[in-house]
Amino acid sequence: MFTVIKNTNLKKGDNVAVLAGKDKGKTGKIISVDRKTMRVTVEAINMHTRFEKKRGAKGGQKVSFPAPMSASKLILVCPNCGKGTRIGHQILENGKKQRICKKCKKAI
Question: How many CA atoms are closer than 13 Å to the CA of 107, on its beta-carbon side?
Fold first, then answer.
């Protein structure tokens, strides 16, 4: 059996823009990344609603929460140039790997 290596360059705290779906064009900050399923949760994007039942003295209520979405529908917004960009990598002199913007060539 083959092992599929899934990789995303998106990390928690990155600002991303949505490329497809009901929230196309919106931007937001990443809350969590699940690398196993390649799904990302972004604040205020892909909002779903759940209804909770009445429990004791607390009444029933409607709860909204951001649901995970596919990482392939997102693109990183560069903090330097402010544009949606792909991510490149650069090896520094001390041997560490650094993410760079493909458009402005600056560190992310």
Answer: 6
